[in-house]
Amino acid sequence: MFTGSLVPNITLFDADGRLDLDKTQWHMRWMFERGVDGLFLTGSYGSGPLMTNAERIAVFEAAKAIAEQYDDKVLIAHVGCIDTASTIALAQAAERLGLDAIGAVPPFYYKHSEDLVLQYYRDLLGATSLPVYAYNNPETSRFSFTVGTVRKLQEMGMAGMKDSPLDVGFVSRVFYEAKLQKKDFQLILGTSKGWLPFYQMGVRAMIAGMSNWAPEIMTALTTATFDGDEETSERLYLLMMDLSSKMHFTDSTIASQMALYARGYDAGFPRKPMLLPPFDSPKYREIRGWLDDAFAQVGLQMDVGEGTLV
């Protein structure tokens, strides 16, 4: 079972859209040094659907090289693609590289029936010995898991599920059913929202986008939670929710890079068609103000880079 706060880490590119592995590895190291427990590679934040398989495998390799420099850092390769063959190729590459697990969103763009989605996962499970986590993200995949779908995935041998919508009825039913029936099936939150109430239910891991740009807050939150410090964890949870809501003014990948620039770090560029606002946009300074206030509220030190943007 994976525990703690993992991050759907962003992939960094240069101004011409080429994969920038040096900056991507810097960012991985920066997050690990601030307490992030693991990486969820080339998912939505990580621009996986905008990348070739060769590029995604290069990110897997880069992450493995960085993670080996630390103790107990988890690497989950998101391998979901629009087609089964590409998904399997990524899964097998992740296994060859020695990553810990794989996650996969259902095949996207086209509208698929449950039978076809289940066959996709059946083929994936048959192609790798790594633990496989289904990824429930209907906003991007056009397919919504039901409790019945999850039961069928469990029968196939799925290791668990990352869930992003966090419908309380669905998630709680999946969790308690697996618990009471003693199924070896882990539920991982696909977002930091809901962390405290779902922790009380028994969930022990989340994949939190905020760790891309404020890992100190997420580390403090998870540490306080696991230590049983309710007052501190509740205060940090509310702070996290407030800061997260402010940052939902654009796509989360772009917002993450903007926040890194606001902290004075050169975070490269997204891949087109994504674009960062011009660096003279007042939004960067506004983000810096939000960050300064948030860190000060909970007495955390916010280091900054050498950039002069703000």
Provide structural commentary:
The chain contains 12 helices and 8 strands. The chain has 310 residues and is α/β, with parallel strands linked by helices. It has a domain at 4-213: TIM Barrel (Alpha-Beta Barrel). The chain has an 8-stranded parallel β-sheet with strand order 7-6-5-4-3-2-1-8. α1 (21-32) links the parallel β1 (4-7) and β2 (38-41). The longest helix is centred in the last third of the chain and has 17 residues, at 230-246. The N and C termini lie far apart (41 Å).
Which architecture of one domain would the CATH scheme give at its second level? Answer: Alpha-Beta Barrel
Strand content bin: 5-15%
Summarize the biggest pleated sheet.
8 strands, parallel
Based on CA atoms alone, the radius of gyration comes out at 19 Å
Shape: globular
Q: How would you spell out the order of helices and strands?
A: EHEHEHEHEHHEHEHEHHHH
- Please give the CATH class of one domain: Alpha Beta
Number of strands: 8
Order of strands in the sheet with the most strands? Answer: 7-6-5-4-3-2-1-8
Q: Into which percent range does the helicity of residues fall?
A: 40-55%
Task: Let me know the CATH homologous superfamily of one domain.
Answer: Aldolase class I
How far apart the termini lie comes to 41 Å
Kindly name the structural category.
alpha/beta
The overall pLDDT, averaged over residues, is 96
In CATH, the topology of one domain is named TIM Barrel
Number of discrete helical segments: 12
Q: Which runs of at least 5 residues are low in confidence (pLDDT < 50)?
A: none
